Amino acid sequence: MANGSEDQSADNNGKEARLAGGRRRTRRRPESEAAPRLSNAVSEARDSVSTLLEEWRDMVEDHPWKALGVALGAGYVVGGGLLTAFTGRLLFGGLRIGFRLAALPLVREELIGLFETVSERGRGETERRHQ
Amino acid sequence: MDTSELGSTVRDLQDKVEDQVKGVSRRMQSASERVVDLVKEHPAAALATAFAVGYLIARVARRS
Asked: What is the pLDDT of residue A2?
């Protein structure tokens, strides 16, 4: 009986030792694999951030006004100005100015034609008087 | 006032207005070139300033 219990305890000790070894192994394995994985992820993230910054700089150099407008609009939206009366006024004012600008060439042509006819009539009258 | 005098007055006025418009457009162009140079030299600062200006405008618009 005593031998049996000793064998059992020895078996238990062996199992515990194996388990502990396994735990150690399972703990060691991710540490050894995680370091290069982490460094790879960090380097990839760094590369993607640097390419993003380069693209962003190129975009700003190519279209500076557009970039400024986008930044201004983003600030306006973040500041909560999107759903305000000021936005409505801006939109309606922009539409009004757009319509006026679209109508301006027509009005200008009409005015230039009117001035030309007036000046030609004036010239004709002065020539008649001289004659 | 004679019609010929009216025509010459209108032409003078047109010339003056054209000169003024040209002057204003020249000034605007030089200012825009300056802004573009500034943005190209300091892109982050320029965009951060534009963002801050937009934010401030929104805050003022919300209050009023």
From this structure: 47
Q: What residue type is B34 in one-letter code?
A: R
Contacts of B3 (CB under 8 A, 6+ apart): A118, A119, A121, A122, A125
Whether the full predicted model's pTM is greater than 0.90, yes or no, is no
CB proximity B57 to A under 8 Å: yes
The conformation of residue A84, written as its DSSP 8-state character, comes to: S
Tell me the C-alpha distance between A68 and B36, whole Å.
10
Residues from chain A contacting residue B58 (CB–CB below 8 Å): 75-82, 84
Give dist(CA A98, CA A127) in Å, integer.
44
The amino acid at A9: S
Rounded CA gap, A66 and B43, in Å? 12
Q: Please check whether residue A71 touches B, CB under 8 A.
A: yes
**Are the C-beta atoms of residues B39 and A60 closer than 8 Å to each other?**
yes
The two tokens of residue A17 are 């030792």
> ipTM value of the model?
0.72
Closest-CA residue to B7 (of A117, A109, A127): A117
CB A60 within 8 A of CB B43: yes
Q: Is some CB atom of chain B closer than 8 A to the CB atom of A84?
A: yes
**Residues with Cβ within 8 Å of residue A61, at least 6 apart in sequence:** B40, B43
